[in-house]
Specification:
This protein is of the alpha+beta class. It has three domains: 5-118, Orthogonal Bundle (Butyryl-Coa Dehydrogenase, subunit A, domain 1); 121-231, Butyryl-CoA Dehydrogenase, subunit A, domain 2 (Beta Barrel), CATH 2.40.110; 235-389, Butyryl-CoA Dehydrogenase, subunit A, domain 3 (Up-down Bundle). The chain has helices at 5-33, 38-47, 65-78, 80-101, 108-115, 237-268, 286-315, 323-349, 360-367, 377-389, and strands spanning 120-123, 139-143, 146-156, 164-171, 179-186, 192-195, 210-220, 224-228. β4 (164-171) and β5 (179-186) form a beta hairpin.
C-alpha cells in the first residue's frame, strides 16, 4: 500500500504528541543550566518537525502557515523556548516556500538545503536598530563577487546548530541610493565569531541566542537574497514574508505559553488554602475568580484573532499595504495579552510563584520576553497608527 502525504502528516502528528511531552519534561533542566535544547532539537529533527513548512517536492510536509502555527503553539505550550528557537528556522523555510509557490524560485536552494537537513537561523537583531530588518547598523561593502559585512548581531537563536545564518547589512556607499543587503552566511564562513551572551538572561534561556560578531565576512553573490531600499519603501514579498512568518510565530509561541500559564493556575488554585475564608481553597475568593475570568477573556480574544489573520494570510487574502498593520496588530495583541495574563497569574500564585520547584516562575520569566520581539510595542504602534492615518512610514524625523 502506497503511503500518501496525508498518511505521512498524520504519522508525524502522532509522533509529535509524544515528543512535545518529552520537550516539556526537559525544559526546566535547560533553563536552570543555560543549556541549548539539544535533545529536543535532535528528537524533533529526527521526527521531521523542521520540515513541516518545506514543500513536498523538497522532502517536506508542505504545510501552509496556518497549519505550521498551530504546531508552533502546541510545542510552545509544552516548551516555549524550544518553540521560539525553532521558529527562527521554520520561518525561513516557510517564507521561501511561499515565494516558490508564487513563482519566485530565486531562493529555491534554501528549500533544497532544508530538505537535506540544513538549519537556518536569523541574525537581524542589532543594538541601536529600532527598525529591525528595514535598516541595519551592520556595514555592507560591495566587493568583487559579493559583499563584505562588518557588524554586531544580537539574539542569534539556534546559535549552536545553525548551518546558515540569515542576516542583513546596509550599503551606504551611495548616499543618494543606500541599499539593505539580505544574505545567508554559511557556518564555514571565515572572519566571524560567536560571543556567549545568553547565560542567565531573564527568560527563553534554552534558545541560546548568543551574539555573532562579523569582522568583514565575505558573502558571495549566490548567497545574497535581496538588495532593497531601506525602510518601508523596500518592502517586497521577501521582506513582508519575514515579518509575517516571524511575527505570527512569535505570537503563537507566547499565546501557547499563555494557555499553559492559565491551565497551571487552574490546576494549582484548588490546592491554595485559606485559613480565614471558611472555604476549601482560595478558588472561592471573589477577587481571584475575577482575575481568572480576566485571564480567560485574554485567551478567548487572542486565539480567534490569531487564527483568523493567519488563515487569511495562508489563503492569500488581498489586504494590500494594510498587511503590515494586520501582522503587527496580531503579534502585539498576543504579546501584550499574554503578559497581562502572566501578571494576573503571578498575583494568584503568590509566594508559590517564586519557588523554582513549583515551575511557574520559569513560565513567568519566559513570558516577559513577549513584547521585545520585533515588532516591539513602540514600533508596532507606530506602524498601526501611521498606517491607519495614511502617514508616510518613512517620513523623517519619526
Amino acid at each position: 500500500m502506497i503511503e500518501t502525504q496525508t498518511d505521512k502528516k498524520e504519522a508525524l502528528l502522532e509522533k509529535l504528541e509524544v515528543i512535545f511531552q518529552n520537550c516539556r519534561d526537559r525544559a526546566a533542566h535547560y533553563d536552570a543550566n543555560n543549556l541549548f535544547f539539544q535533545e529536543d532539537f535532535d528528537e524533533l529533527k529526527e521526527a521531521g518537525y523542521l520540515l513541516i513548512a518545506v514543500p513536498e517536492e523538497f522532502g517536506g510536509y508542505g504545510m501552509l502557515i496556518d497549519e505550521v502555527e498551530q504546531l508552533t503553539r502546541q510545542l510552545a505550550y509544552h516548551a516555549a523556548a524550544t518553540a521560539l528557537g525553532l521558529n527562527m528556522h521554520i520561518y525561513w523555510t516557510g517564507l521561501v516556500a511561499d515565494l516558490y509557490r508564487s513563482g519566485d524560485t530565486s531562493l529555491q536552494w534554501v528549500l533544497e538545503e532544508a530538505g537535506k537537513g540544513k538549519i537556518f537561523a536569523a541574525g537581524h537583531g542589532e543594538s541601536g536598530n529600532d527598525s529591525p530588518v528595514l535598516y541595519s547598523t551592520c556595514e555592507a561593502e560591495k566587493v568583487e563577487g559579493g559583499y563584505k559585512l562588518t557588524g554586531h548581531k544580537m539574539f542569534g537563536s539556534l546559535t549552536p546548530v545553525w548551518d546558515y545564518l540569515g542576516l542583513h547589512g546596509q550599503d551606504n556607499s551611495d548616499p543618494d541610493n543606500p541599499k539593505v543587503i539580505h544574505v545567508f552566511m554559511p557556518r564555514e564562513t571565515d572572519n566571524y565569531e560567536i560571543k556567549k551572551t545568553w547565560d542567565n538572561v531573564l527568560g527563553m534561556r534554552a534558545t541560546r541566542s548568543d551574539d555573532t560578531i562579523l569582522n568583514g565576512v565575505f558573502i558571495p553573490d549566490k548567497y545574497i537574497a535581496r538588495q532593497v531600499a531601506p525602510g518601508f519603501a523596500g518592502i517586497d514579498g521577501f521582506i513582508l514574508g519575514v515579518f509575517a512568518w516571524a511575527n505570527f510565530g512569535f505570537a503563537n509561541v507566547y499565546f501557547g505559553l499563555a494557555q499553559r500559564i492559565l491551565n497551571t493556575v487552574i490546576e494549582k488554585l484548588p490546592q491554595k488554602k485559606s485559613i480565614s475564608m471558611g472555604r476549601p481553597s482560595m478558588a472561592y475568593h471573589g477577587g481571584i475568580q475575577r482575575d481568572v475570568a480576566d485571564m480567560v477573556l485574554e485567551v478567548e480574544s487572542i486565539g480567534p484573532h490569531l487564527d483568523t489573520i493567519v488563515r487569511e494570510y495562508a489563503e492569500g487574502k488581498d489586504y494590500g499595504g494594510a498587511w503590515g498593520v494586520k501582522i503587527v496588530a496580531a503579534k502585539c495583541h498576543a504579546a501584550e495579552g499574554s503578559m497581562r495574563l502572566a501578571d494576573k497569574a503571578m498575583d494568584i500564585m503568590g509566594g508559590a510563584g517564586l519557588i523554582h520547584k513549583v515551575g511557574f516562575e520559569r513560565l513567568y520569566r519566559d513570558a516577559r520576553l513577549a513584547k521585545i520581539h520585533p515588532a516591539n510595542t513602540y514600533f508596532a504602534r507606530e506602524i498601526m497608527a501611521k498606517g491607519m492615518l495614511g502617514i508616510d512610514l518613512d517620513l523623517k524625523p519619526r
